[in-house]
Amino acid sequence: MATSSASKLSILEKSGYAMGDAAANLVWRGALAYLAVFYTDTLGITAAAAAALLLLVRVSDGITDIIMGMIADRTQTKYGKFRPWILWSAPVLGLFMVLAFTAPNISPEMKLLWAYFTYIGLTLAYTVNNVPYSALMGVMTSSHEERSVLSGYRFAGAFLGGALVMAGTPYLVEYFGQGDEAKGYQQTMYVFAVLLVALCVITFATTKERIVPTANSGSFKKEFKDLLFNLPFIIVPLLSISLFFFSLTQGSDATYKLNPWYMGVFCAVVLAATGYLIRKLINRPDTDTTPSQRDLIDLLTNKPWLMILGLGFLTMLFNGIKYVVIAYYFKHYLHQPTLTGMYFLALLITSIFAAFVCGYFTRLVGKKTLFIASLIISGVLTGCISFLHSENVTGLFVLGCAAEFFAAFMPVLTFSMLGDAADYSEWKHGRRATGLFYSAGSFIQKTGGGFAGALVLLVLGGYGYVGTDPSTIAQATDGMVMLMSWIPAVFAFVAVFLLIVYPLNSQRMSEIETDLEARRAQSV
Predict the structure, then answer these.
(1) What is the C-alpha separation between 146 and 149, in angstroms, rounded?
(2) Structure pTM?
(3) Distance between CA atoms of 25 and 155, rounded to whole angstroms?
(4) Is 513 exposed, middle or buried (0-12, 13-18, 19+ CB in 10 A)?
(5) Which of 302, 324, 358, 468 has its CA 20 to 30 A from that of 105?
(6) Other CB atoms closer than 10 Å to residue 512's CB: what's the count?
(7) Taking all residues of the chain, what is their mean pLDDT, rounded to a whole number?
(8) What are phi and psi of 219, to 5 degrees?
(9) How far is CA 192 from CA 67, 101, 133, in A?
(10) ∠ CA 458-459-464 to the nearest 5 degrees?
(11) Average pLDDT, stretch 277-284?
(12) How many CB atoms lie within 10 A of CB 10?
């Protein structure tokens, strides 16, 4: 179905929207690429402690994505629901970006507390900024095809911001630090924080909210209290999963060790009980549920959304593991740390090009087919990195960039498909909680990124790696090679099986879009 002229967006607006994710990725990709190695090699905390930190904060902070999505859906200002949050949160996000890469001269215990404080602040500020930003895509246009193109612009911006922070950080740290990495990291983040605020202002000024979702009934205060009452459905399962994985990340020097077998059984029991309670909630009649409960029910009964959640998590593991381990791989396996920035830059230039063409490929073959092909090809190419010798830097750049071209389609398609899931919910239930649906995107990034970072540090810790002890590094290089190749590739191959049963193809979405446009026209 052709996109109507009323649904088309100008290049200026699409580019302006892209700047918001360029800003967010100064934080997201900077943290993903360098925070783990900053914690172990500069701040001086152990790999096990850093793994637990990345996991617990990211997974638990995923809860705030759901809360922020519901808050954004209920926000009413003259500037819209979502755009104001992008503007308001930018200075706070920039501040915590600087603090997270600050290494104060304090005791090891206080350094760990400092890392928790700054990382929690960073992830909360990112939530307040990025959940409304993601939801904004769902109300800028009613066309699912135009959303695919807009998603491509968005991730071109994301990769541009990533290119700046990932390629520029090693050189800026060296320039500002002059051998003092702690000073270099802090002053580098000052530069990126100022740029972040400027980019968010551009997004706020150049975008427009066009779709007005059905108003939620009830007062904001009453529904927020109701939301807090229902949070155990989210908090308890996430807490049990986090504790289980935390039990796996503990080092041999941990004072109080959790038995992984006991925690695994506890996690399984909690998940089974939560599933039973959720099933009872779903079976309640609408008259016996509150608005926020109906929002949660809409999510939990939306099979496309649940599948996208799984796909996003698996692809975030696939991409996240590779990005976290790159700094270690170049520094300790290739012994060429200055090439880290060049490799990131090569990957991100490839990603920008892929993001721009993704929307047009989608029109030719459909999202589902393109996603499956991307997973298989990128997974195979990534696995082949394991066959490269440490001297074959050219081969690494070629294989890495080829794999990245297809991997870059994955987040573009995931966020575009979240809009499809919101359309499906509106078509099926007559309700559209756009912010809540798009909060899944930030939730996926944080939980997937948390598990990816923790898994990298868990594997390195298993090989005995200690960042401040050179004698432990050589024995961990085999783990770095596997983390660059077959370990992430496995997650890509698993995701293919989930996509095979995904129900929303191009024909189905065209039918839903046509039906929704007719309904909206009748309600005007």
Answers:
(1) 5
(2) 0.68
(3) 10
(4) buried
(5) 324
(6) 18
(7) 81
(8) -80, 155
(9) 28, 12, 19
(10) 90
(11) 76
(12) 10
